[in-house]
Amino acid sequence: MLIRQKDDVRSSDITAEAVYLSRRDLIKAAGIGVTGAVISGSIGSRAIAAENGPVGKIMASVTKSPLSTAESPNTWTDITGYNNYYEFGTGKDDPSRFAVDFAPQPWRVKVSGECNKPGNYNYEDLVSLHALEERIYRLRCVEAWSMVIPWVGIPLASLVNRFEPNSNARYVSFKTLHAPSRMPGQRRRILDWPYVEGLTMAEAMHPLSIIAVGLYGRELPNQNGAPMRLVVPWKYGFKSIKAIAEISFTRKRPRSSWEQAAPSEYGFYANVNPQVDHPRWSQARERPIGAGLFAGKKPTLMFNGYAEQVASLYTGLDLRKNY
What we know:
Mean pLDDT: 88
Shape: globular
Structural class: alpha+beta
CATH class: Alpha Beta
Order of helices and strands: HHEHHEEHEEHEEHEEEEHEEH
Helix content: 10-25%
Strand content: 15-25%
CATH superfamily: Oxidoreductase, molybdopterin-binding domain
Low-confidence stretches: 1-45
Oligomer: single chain
CATH architecture: Alpha-Beta Complex
Number of strands: 13
């Protein structure tokens, strides 16, 4: 007889349908004031109280990108207090609560596979050689909620070129740090840790793909993936892996963590597509976080509104089969 242990979590338990509103939204809608406890009083800390305005070290020499959307970004509170980061728990506010003591420095990234310059690279060496840009991007979660986020980052293509992938490199794979002592969510068998994601080389080299190292002009908060995370704005948010510790160039397509956990629900490509529903809910509409309890949903755009820039990457590909 199969006995389900306490820490066993089904994929259907992890990814809740977006119609379930957060407790904070309900409280605000009722007109009740919310006062968040200050998680860290240090201005230089990467761990932030979700109810506070932007804090943390200001990043110098950040330029505005013409690739940014003209839409207004969500607030610091929205972005840092409501997100998925299962390495720190499955609740939307768990990352802001349990990432407080996570130390993102010093940080090294292991680079391997089909490239001419493998090795172990310090975070500072990777970032310092690239100009920082503010990229205001739409974010669409597979759970059918959305935000607009002002990332600070570097083009992924610039980073990839530094490692000189060879002609055998068809994909690039990413792994999150595996450290259960530092990431309490990894002590539970939610996924097969460490978290793995991947892109085709064409996707990785696309101008919209970035490595984010900041938010609102400040160093990236712990709960948002410090010190560096992937951002691919035309794909569902789970593709944008956080706390990247390994990058590998491969001939064979990597099998991502959610693809392994629930292959009928989460495919490798994970392109935002309102015409292809999740098996348990519609993807035709989305709930903008911060719009208010009674604002309702809005239509989801193909490729999250980036179709003009990225549709050519998938010419001839069956987007229903390759979801």
